[in-house]
Design brief:
With 294 residues, the protein is α/β, with parallel strands linked by helices. It has helices at residues 40-47, 69-72, 90-97, 105-115, 128-142, 158-175, 186-192, 210-215, 256-264, 278-288, and strands spanning 2-11, 14-24, 29-33, 55-60, 63-64, 75-78, 146-150, 178-182, 195-200, 203-209, 217-223, 237-244, 247-253, 270-274. A six-stranded mixed beta sheet has the order 6-7-8-3-9-10, sandwiched between helices. Strand 4 and strand 5 form a beta hairpin.
Length: 294
């Protein structure tokens, strides 16, 4: 398990991360979501041991990642703009990574065929999507214990996204590799990840099991025979509330059976409970959420 314990980070005078607590278990697909500037990319670099903590610590099996090359060899970070030598081919970069990781030649050639890439072509001539495929290929062939991806889906067409998700699932099943992804593509993240953390202003708003957290939030539409007093909802954990005369829209947290039972005591003419997706939860939590830890 890799874990953040009360992590702080400054870049210059700017505080980027503040008191971040995070546990990422083995064999998970973990999503980091948040608005621009929330600290997602910085946190990925710290998990990889590229940046040192200014407070707190990041540990892998109780060893500080930043201080231990043996820990770093178990982690591979692929940034939004991966490093490449100017005249390097994909084969050149594979040989470069072999100095640090154990790149499986069989897997490398398997994914090379799957992604239809030419290992002898200069990477600088690749499109953005092809570069993304090339470095994901290297990450998968290296089979690190933790694969960290910044904007993993950016530049990938629908077919490549499909291949990517299938391959990741296979690698996790085979070797219990964990994948940690930072992305703005919330639809893909909801379909792909089993755990998540939501960052805003360098702090964790919410997180944990994606299915469990989505089950805790509800969007409710109601209509009444008379204008509603907002005070009747005071005892509920209401995140947002819109009342337009006799029509009420709520976004609430809590046990849905208890929420529904209470709302029925108000005798609404219409009571509709709607599912909440990750994008809706993201918008509500960023606007109105509370700090927490995972």
């Amino acid at each position: 398990m890799i874990e953040c314990r009360n992590v702080y980070k400054f870049l210059g005078k700017k505080q980027v991360l503040q008191d971040v607590n995070l546990r990422i278990p083995d064999g998970s697909i973990f999503g980091l979501i948040g608005p621009n500037g929330a600290g997602k990319s910085t946190l990925l670099r710290m998990l990889a041991g590229i940046y040192q903590c200014d407070g707190g610590q990041i540990v892998l099996d109780e060893e500080r990642v930043f201080d231990h090359p043996s820990c770093k060899r178990q982690i591979m970070f692929i940034s939004d703009e991966p490093f490449q030598f100017f005249h390097a081919t994909l084969k050149d970069m594979k040989n470069f990574y072999q100095d640090w990781y154990r790149v499986d030649e069989r897997l490398y050639h398997h994914y090379l065929n799957l992604f239809h890439l030419d290992e002898n072509q200069l990477l600088k001539n690749f499109s953005k999507g092809m570069k993304r495929q090339a470095f994901i290929l290297l990450g998968l062939a290296a089979s690190p214990r933790y694969l960290l991806l910044d904007e993993a889906f950016d530049g990938l067409d629908p077919m490549m996204r499909h291949h990517f998700k299938n391959v990741i699932s296979e690698r996790i099943a085979d070797q219990k590799m964990s994948v940690i992804i930072a992305s703005h593509d919330l639809k893909e993240m909801e379909a792909f990840c089993d755990m998540f953390a939501m960052l805003e202003n360098g702090q964790i708003r919410t997180g944990g099991s994606l299915d469990q957290e989505l089950a805790k939030v509800h969007r409710i539409q109601m209509a009444f025979s008379e204008t509603v007093d907002p005070a009747v909802f005071a005892d509920m954990d209401v995140v947002t509330m819109q009342i337009r005369s006799r029509v009420v829209n709520l976004y609430v947290r809590g046990d849905i059976e208890k929420v529904e039972a209470y709302l029925k005591t108000l005798d609404p003419l219409v009571l509709e409970i709607l599912p909440v997706n990750l994008e809706e939860m993201f918008i509500q939590e960023v606007l109105h959420g509370k700090e927490g830890s995972v």
